[in-house]
Amino acid sequence: MPEHHPLLAELNEAQRAAVAAPLAATLVLAGAGSGKTRVLTHRAAWLITEHGVSPQGLLAVTFTNKAAAEMRGRIEALLDLPGSSLWVGTFHGIAHRLLRRHWREAALPQQFQILDDDDQQRLVRKLIREQNLDEQRWVPREVQGFINREKDEGRRPKHLQDRGDPTRRELIRLYELYQKRCDVLGVVDFAELLLRCLEMIRDQPPLADFYRRRFRHVLVDEFQDTNGVQYDWVRLLCGSEGLPFVVGDDDQSIYRWRGARVENMQRYRKDFGASTFKLEQNYRSTSVILGAANQVIRLNEDRLGKELWTAAKGGEPIRLYSAFNERDEADFVLERIREHARSGLPLSAAAILYRSNAQSRAFEEALMAARIPYRVYGGLRFFERAEIKDALAYLRLCGNRNDDVSFERVVNLPTRGIGQSTLERLRSESRSTGVSLWDAALQVRPSLPARAASALGGFLALIEKMAAAMEGKDLPDQVRIGIEDSGLREHHSREKDNKGEARVENLDELVNAAAGFAPEGEDDLPPLASFLSHATLESGETQAADGRDSVQLMTLHSAKGLEFPTVFMVGLEEGLFPSERSVFDPEKLPEERRLCYVGITRAMQRLYLSHAESRRMYGRTDYRAPSRFVGELPPELIEEVRPRLSVSRPLYDPDAGQARRPSFAGSRPAAVPARPVVRPQKGEDVPYRLGARVRHVKFGEGVVIRYEGNGDNQQVQVNFERGGQKWLMCAYAKLEAV
User: CA-CA distance, 653 to 662, in Å (whole number)?
Assistant: First the structure.
């Protein structure tokens, strides 16, 4: 192997082997923190410099615009090439690009629009109402989810069978009606982008041959996250002579809930006869952290198999904290963050990772009370904010009067006196004559009452005036006209709270976004149409931080692809993580374990794990056992910050399949001060303290964890070692204090 080649000199042995692999179907099994993006971009540069592949003969695909931009930038830096010569983008972005170039072959109008998630749901809701269906039963988001799931698996209504189920039969009918409406309106949703592109290539052999000859080398990042359509899209584009090079990690496949299929990794090896290269050297975490990650993920079956390692030895032990409740857990995390800050570490070096968004509240309250800045990663995204979507709807309607979704969104925003009765007249006319709402408005207006006719006429004239004013203007001015002339800016500036000011600032930022927008190299759309497509594709992507030093809060799913010097994985309890829905599901539990693996491998230097003996969620207090994932960690890597009392709930033993007492290395219960007693509310007359150890003649020994009622009706909940949790009447239980 040419180790001293300039492109390979900075790579380790395994990375060099993957980058310089023979020209054949290849799978790079890349562990967390092993340099997968480096390998993918160096492979692209290697093909161009060593094998004479044209830059325009490469297709590189990933899942987020941020990752695509990083990939493009790295290839440009390696080869000193302009980015416009490279086909690098997301699956949806590349599909959109192909459909724009071949709109006739795809049976789409040239100026087709993209429906984002919210607009798609609006259209589904409209159809449900038109069919006089009960929205309580036919929930728009659930119908939308059914449609998208079927599209993600490449299935049209004609491919589906109701199996004798009337509910499924109606869902299939709604899917068919929805797709017909989209075709009439000339709009496509996100799932349709990929499916329509797949069908176009499949049904147009000359087009398929052209792109197979052009893109013999298809590079795919994060292959473990591909769904059915994406896999078939890659396979169809490569054909029998393509040379795909895919990078992924089956141990980090955590998006099955949105269609990802980890089995595509195994399927790819079989379908393409791909050679496999493993990247196992980790450049992120300490050996202690990697030891824990390896041990947890090893218990999953059907893995391709790898073992992370690092050249750096040692590292701090993993700290485990058992909290009384979620507030105690939050206080513990807060105090550790303060300690790190006092030692000079920035707040942004710490991340709090949780399984469910509902868990963030206790940490947010603690951080706010301590006046420590924080950021909830993955919060409301810029292009998903209501005021931004309103402005974009005005701009879309100026470019396409037949955009019914945009018409309905802004026809009475700001309020201009167009009520529901007028809108229903327009919808009825649209349905009966098969025209858009805009054309229906032109037809119906003369027959409306004077006030309604005037209001509707004013709106139609406004759109025409705005469109005329935009002619010949540059993109930022077009966006500014849309915001100003529509009345949105004035509307939000009149709001008397801080939200109005923030919305005006967001509208101003939309103009800034337009000023900084640069279309992709071969995009021949008008600037405004290109910007609107870009805005839709960008919605659903996390925006960058505001730059302020702050603690990072996020779900474990949001943390994938990120890294932090200090990580707090909180809420490690059975039924919470792994989730209650996953505990007994043979398909979901392995993904929960992969999610735990992802969380552990986000930590670079310090990892804290915590669980609470009681947690108030969704309006009730739950008592749960510590997560089985805690019990699966190597005891020699764990240091209990404050060991739990021996009377606490047992851990889950995966080997024995039953509960067991915790036994962690380094625990010295005798040296640990006793926890303060959690006492009942003032005025309650109870025979036993919360946390007291008691004995029952039938169930044996246990711990008092809860009370309910008063007097003769008073009940006590006891967590028994042998019998689990039991509610007992205090007057008859005959419990004996131990």
Answer: 9
Residue in this structure with the two tokens 């947010």, named with its chain if needed: 364
Rounded average pLDDT over 52-70: 89
Residue 214 to residues 205, 211, 221, 235: CA-CA distances in angstroms? Answer: 14, 5, 20, 15
Crossing angle between the packed helical segments 166-185 and 140-152, to the nearest 10 degrees: 80
Annotation says 235 is catalytic: no
Measured CA to CA, the distance from residue 550 to residue 547 in angstroms comes to: 9
- Residue among 97, 216, 602, 644 flagged as catalytic: 602
Report d(CA 197, CA 202) in Å as an integer. 9
What is the rounded distance in angstroms from the CA atom of residue 335 to the CA atom of residue 354?
18
For the chain, counts of helices (H) and of strands (E): 27, 24
Query: Contact, 285 vs 310, CB < 8 A?
Result: yes
200 phi/psi in degrees, rounded to 5: -60, -45
The reply to whether 389 belongs to the active site is no
Q: Is the peptide bond before 414 cis (omega within 30 degrees of 0)?
A: yes
Residues linked to residue 40 through DSSP beta bridges, in sequence order? none
List, edge to edge, every strand of the sheet that includes 603-612. 374-376, 551-555, 350-354, 564-569, 603-612, 318-323, 638-642
Catalytic site includes residue 26: no
Query: Is 252 assigned a catalytic role?
Result: yes
> Cis ω on the peptide bond leading into residue 662 (within 30° of 0)?
no
Distance from C-alpha of 123 to C-alpha of 120, rounded to nearest angstrom: 5
pTM of the model: 0.73
CA proximity to 573, closest of 329, 222, 277, 271? 329
How far CA 47 is from CA of 13, 94, 218, in Å, comes to 18, 21, 11
User: What is the arithmetic mean of pLDDT over 350-378?
Assistant: 85
Alpha carbons within 13 angstroms on the beta-carbon side of residue 698 total: 7
Q: In this predicted model, what pLDDT tens digit does every residue of 537-573 receive, in sequence order? A: 766 443 334 668 899 999 999 999 899 999 999 999 9
Distance (Å, whole) CA 515 – CA 476: 5
Q: Which of 116, 119, 221, 591 is catalytic?
A: 221
Query: Does the annotation mark 104 as catalytic?
Result: no
Structure tokens at 381: 């995204």
> What rounded mean pLDDT belongs to the chain?
85
Asked whether the beta carbons of 551 and 360 are under 8 A apart, the reply is no
The tokens for 614 are 């009681």
Average pLDDT over residues 87-91: 91
Tokens coding 241? 């002579």
For residue 277, the model assigns a pLDDT of 96
| Catalytic residue of the set 26, 230, 252, 310 | 252
pLDDT (tens digit, 9 = 90+) per residue, 301-338? 889 989 999 998 889 999 999 998 888 999 999 999 99
Chain-centre distance for alpha carbon 66:
14
Euclidean distance between CA atoms 410 and 133, whole angstroms? 25
15/545 Cα distance (integer angstroms)? 31
* CA 377 from centroid of its chain's CA atoms: 11
Q: Is 161 a catalytic residue?
A: no
CA distances from 447 to 139, 422, 430, 441, 467 (A): 34, 11, 15, 10, 26
- Pairing assessment for the beta strands 350-354 and 564-569 based on DSSP bridges: parallel
- The pLDDT tens digits for 192-234 are 999 999 999 999 999 999 999 999 999 999 999 999 999 999 9
CA-to-CA distance for 661 and 389, rounded, in angstroms? 54
